[in-house]
Amino acid sequence: MARPNVLISCGQRVRDKYFPLQEIERLEAFADWDWFHCEGGNIHAASEDSEGATRLAERIAGVDALVVCHGSPRIDEAILDRADKLRFIGELEGDRFSVRIDLDAAWARGVRTVDTTNGSSYPVAEWALGLILVSVRNAGANFRRIIAGNTPSGVEKSEMCGSLWGRRVGIIGGGHMGRRLMKLLRPFEVDIWVHDPYLPREMGEALGFLQTSLDQIFSQCDVIVCVAPLTPKTTGMIGKHELGLIRSGSVFVNVSRGAIVDSSALIDRLKRGDIVAGLDVFDPEPIPSDSEIIHLSNVFLSPHIGWATGDDSPHFFNLMVDELDRFFAGHETFFDLTPSAKANRLGDEPSGP
Question: pLDDT tens digits, residue range 36-79?
């Protein structure tokens, strides 16, 4: 069989930063590829350069797989009508909304659509575990005490300090980040509860968690972790009611997006002093220098660093090469964009039972 032709549509910055040589070599082992240079848009928006869209439509003939990222125009019906061989479209990094692909038009033509934006989810899951461990021992308060010059060893009687082992952990969001966090939590033999209305019911049995309501997560769990995406439906989802359900001595961790939580309500709940929070995100960002959240001793803060790995290139392209390899070898892809995924990202009601 002929080697597949892969076209990558993106800007210069993505070309320079996102494609490590070893991954290019891995792609070249099974496919021919080319770069379509285009600029415009951002992580949340496709390029509106009509000339670029026209050029891409002229270039798309004979292409088996198209990978898009920042700079690419939207892959709409006009482009898809010119794509005589296209079987695969991959969004490299789109902040979970896939604005560069007309999904319905692609599906109508039988084109497989995947998204590797979850390349940033895996390191965030690691930091979620880190913040859980920091928070169950209220390490933020202990660090504040030490830098204030109060250095005796041990725990002061007024400080909360616990263990993760065998506790009940509630995870809000069962996507890539949530599922990776579940794997990381297994050695601690925790009881995992999950709230995510978009998950298939059978996933709980397969992965070993209890699927439940948001109120149950907040009222019954020792550790509560938000890893849900920010969508129209999740914006402000956690407010005074939910935070008021948290039991004394519990921990709340947020590594997803600050706007999912009502910041004023969170500060009010923390000021009661009987729970601990570990926050990598806040609303607004950056945190205002005069915000009360900075001075609360029962809060550990980090400046939205969960995604950072220190590597020269982000991990999106690694996952995309994996997907292309699976697809052209005749296997099923892992990270498909489906009608259910689209509903989740747009905040629409989940379909099915």
Answer: 999 999 888 999 999 999 999 999 999 999 999 999 999 999 99
Radius of gyration of the chain (CA): 22
Query: In degrees rounded to 5, what are phi and psi of residue 260?
Result: -70, -25
Q: Is 292 exposed, middle or buried (0-12, 13-18, 19+ CB in 10 A)?
A: middle
Question: What CATH fold (topology level) applies to the domain 5-115+311-346?
Answer: Rossmann fold (3.40.50)
For the chain, give the longest Cα–Cα distance.
Answer: 72
Contacts of 291 (CB under 8 A, 6+ apart): 267, 282
Q: State the span(s) of the chain assigned CATH 3.40.50.720.
A: 5-115+311-346, 121-301
> In angstroms, rounded to a whole number, what is the distance separating the alpha carbons of residues 218 and 126?
22
For residue range 126-173, list pLDDT tens digits in order. Answer: 999 999 999 999 999 989 989 999 888 876 655 666 899 999 999 999
Pairing of strands 276-279, 251-254: parallel
The fold of 121-301 is: Rossmann fold (3.40.50)
Main-chain dihedrals φ then ψ at residue 334, nearest 5 degrees: -90, -40
Range list of β-strands (E), 148-303: 168-172, 191-195, 210-211, 223-226, 251-254, 276-279, 299-301
Question: For residue 238, what are its two tokens?
Answer: 């956690």
pTM of the model: 0.92
Classify 180 as helix, strand or coil. helix
